Amino acid sequence: MSEFEVITITLSFILGLGITQILSGMVEVIRSPKREGLDWIPLVWAWVIFLQAMQIWFWMWADAQVREWTGLWYSAWVGLASLLFLAGGLILPNRISAEGESLGQYFERTGRQALTALSSFMVLAAVVNSFTAGPFTLSNILLYVLTLIVVTVTVSRKRPVRAVGTILYIGIGNLRALRRPGIPGRM
To answer: Is 136's pLDDT higher than 90?
Structure first.
């Protein structure tokens, strides 16, 4: 077993637990009889966080092929994984935190904090990308735009602004995902 495979065990645990929280939250949303309809905005953001957590594994493996892992580099990756874990844990309700409230109410009260963690993840990803590919690559510029959209959705109290921001994020995020292969400097 290589050194990289040993250190990725921690990252895999963190990411796996974050994904578990998202999936458990999804089960709770579907199962709960007290929910007054499904709000699409938090469900879309849960999917975005889920996809980010899945993609980071591929980025990590691709990065291992081109660089030696130092303590600082490993710390950056642990930070990225931890922020996704936090976002995954906050985006959807669980039995304890959301008794009797709708998904929209939960998102207003707690779920938007997940977007703060997601935007922090994106800022750290931009810093990591700046060291690997430079700060003004097309991928990083799109990442800056996506981060501004997430911050706007997070701070806005108006549902139409959150809805438009969510749709814009999906559109620009898909554009960014389609143009980048899973290699370092393209996070």
So the answer is: no
